[in-house]
Amino acid sequence: MTEKKNLLIIGAAGGVAGAFLKRLADDRNRFGSLVLIDAVDRMGSDPALCWDRLGAEFLHRRVDAGADRAGYRALLENRRIDVVIDLSVNETRPMLAETDAAGACYLNTGIANRIGEDFAGVVFDLVEKKTGGWKRPHILCAGMNPGIVNHWVQKGIERHGRPLRITHFEYDSGEAVDPWRPVITWSRETFLDEIANDPAGYMAGRGRMQSFYPNPLKHRVAMDDILAPILSLKVYPRGFLLLHEENVTIAQACDVPSRFVFANDIRTMDHLESCYDNGRLSLDDLHLGDNRGLKIRGSVLVGIRLEYPDRWVYRYNRTGHDALDGSSGSCLQVAAGLHAALLTLVGENADDRLEKGIYFCEDLSGTAFERLAAQNLDSVEVVLPANADVPWDDFAAVDAAGSETKLRVQPADNLPLPAGVGPFAVGK
Asked: Which residue, 370, 200, 222, 231, is CA-closest to 300?
């Protein structure tokens, strides 16, 4: 057994941290000291947290290696931190660099860039630097999506072969118990930033990003084609086309087109688009449904579809928003990936330890992550004939200039697709 590792969790008052800490309580004796940090002191707002079992120290302060490099390094050295779990919106690259320089491992659930910086460019850069001169192993994007979903993609490719394209999807039916109001079940700030400030887009293959302006609010995709094979709804939503970390990293790894389509309550999406059209979209237009302050019902469905000429391979998880006291189903899913990644990072013994470098979840096939993720989160795999309503040899697509074209999908061994032509239908 290795020496017990000391943990630091940044952003410890948030919803993902709350769900993760409830899971970590069962493994508390495997770790040394536990330091929790947040700029907001609301740790007491979640009565379901087992403080006696956690034995944690809470520091009410802001931590940001980009703004205070020396202060962050001193914190890590003085507390003898071995693993940093960063659940904040601090810029990823300086946090990662300073953590590694201090001899600690770094773990997060998503990539954060500077305001005005190209998000996809940051992800490209980190992928390129996976094996370059690191002192410790680090796991990035280790939540649900990004996170577990790309582990599913990798296992699916190992079993079924390289697909023509990959669709990542999420449908969150969460709604306030009473009365109805527009809600998101994880983060208002991050969600509004994704749908309003970033362009819509997808990866057309390795190094080939397709963007659609102004944003996902104005580029919505009909989801009946995605959801109907596995979920019966009276009305199917038109989801937001979001370019996520999992699209970039899997496209870089496999040179396969990849998109992500997200939907929540139809009324919420229409409400937000209307607010945007009227020039008044703000945080006040959305409520946080976290089962701490605002109680919610419903569930969240997250999955992938590997798309072959003759079949679609689905793998997905559906988690109820009532599955964990004081947390949403969305935060529980993210915590499942985070917990599996942490135990993979520290290793049970020397043979389990990862080599130095950066890892994403698609890189963790054959490691402890495979077993731990499956234990933490059930999933269902379904193989179906390709939908005859969307023929593979006549798939409507929209190129980066916004003009409609017809795409003849090529066999998987002939990818990548022609430059300038997108593999996915994009609604306007």
From this structure: 231
CA–CA separation, 409 and 309 (whole Å): 9
Distance CA 270, CA 278 (A): 12
Residue 188 structure tokens: 């208002």
- Rounded Cα distance between 107 and 346, Å, is 11
Q: How far apart are CA 161 and CA 84, in angstroms?
A: 36
pLDDT at 348 over 80: no
Listed by start position, the domains of the chain span 5-144+328-376, 148-327+379-414
Backbone angles phi, psi at 286, to 5 degrees: -145, 140
Structure confidence at residue 7 as a pLDDT band (50, 70, 90): very high
Give the pLDDT confidence of 59-96 residue by residue, as tens digits: 999 999 989 999 999 999 999 999 999 999 999 999 99
Q: In this structure, which topology does domain 148-327+379-414 adopt according to CATH? A: Dihydrodipicolinate Reductase; domain 2 (3.30.360)
What does the block give as tokens for 257?
């087109």
Tokens describing residue 258: 């990849």
> How many beta carbons lie within 10 A of that of residue 230, not counting itself?
18
Largest CA distance in the chain: 62
DSSP secondary structure letter of residue 197: I
Tokens 């050295």 belong to which residue?
77
- In our burial notation (b when 16+ CB lie closer than 10 A, e otherwise), range 316-355 reads bbbbebeebebbbbbbbbbbbbbbbbbbbbbbeeeeeebe
Residue 229's identity, in one-letter code, is: P
Average pLDDT over residues 330-342: 97
Determine the average pLDDT of the residues in 119-144: 95
Whether the predicted pLDDT of 418 surpasses 70: no
Question: What values do phi and psi take at 138, rounded to 5?
Answer: -140, 145
Contact indicator for 17, 109 with CB cutoff of 8 Å: no
Residue 178, burial from CB neighbour count under 10 angstroms (0-12, 13-18, 19+): exposed
> Residue 412: exposed, middle, or buried by beta-carbon count in 10 A (0-12, 13-18, 19+)?
middle
pTM of the predicted protein model: 0.90
Beta pairing class for 200-205 and 311-320? unpaired
The Cα 338–Cα 142 span in angstroms is: 5
CA end-to-end span of the chain: 56
Q: Under CATH, which number does the domain 5-144+328-376 receive?
A: 3.40.50.720
